[in-house]
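User: Hi! I'm working on a homework problem where we have to compare a predicted structure to a textbook description. Could you give me the structure for the chain below?
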Amino acid sequence: MAGFNKVVDSYEAAMAGLQDNMTVIAGGFGLCGIPEGLIAQIKKMNTKGLTVVSNNCGVDGFGLGLLLEEKQIKKMVSSYVGENALFEQQLLNGELEVELTPQGTLAEKMRAGGAGIPAFYTATGFGTPVGEGKESRKFNGRDYILEESITGDFAIVKAYKADRYGNCIYRHTAQNFNPMAATAGKITVLEVEEIVEPGELSPSEIHTPGIYVDRIIVGKFEKRIERKILSSASNNQ
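Assistant: Happy to help. Predicted structure tokens:
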């Protein structure tokens, strides 16, 4: 069974094969459940011309925002971009192409890509700029647009626990885009907090089966909070 061990011992090995102009699908929502070390490795590699598919582009100086500093991202496919001043600057300067996608549609694009479904119909975006130039049909009296699914050369995801075969679970709200992203990469790399022995994870609690995972690395996570809001003492009285 040793041949099924997918654990690698370096970030260089984890991201081996990533080249300029590839598409990377990244799990996470804001700064929650992001593969921090894998993103840092992409920055270290200085890979250019990337198309990155993710809910957002992190914040200035952290998460996917790191990749904007050396203009490594050519195109961003995302649903929310409001926390990153550098992102806004590059967009307005014409240095970054952005394809804004409704959040549920983006999640389904990843899920469909992982399931081998080339496209699907959704009512979201019909009659708006999102639907311009896209095929439309009417079902049961309602208009829908055709959205193409997404796959990537790499998918980078973050999990809580995994065995060495790649079966993994995500903790709480890290079950955001990670499960969908994990299925949609030609090479899926999993950054995980803890490796457990095979059999320790109950089959009923596994979120992503190991069949989708190609490489695993144990990471150390800062888990930065995007916005910390504390109630004042007066509000608690």
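For your comparison, note the following. The chain has a mean pLDDT of 93. The domain at 2-119+149-220 is CATH 3.40.1080.10 (Glutaconate Coenzyme A-transferase). Good luck with the assignment!
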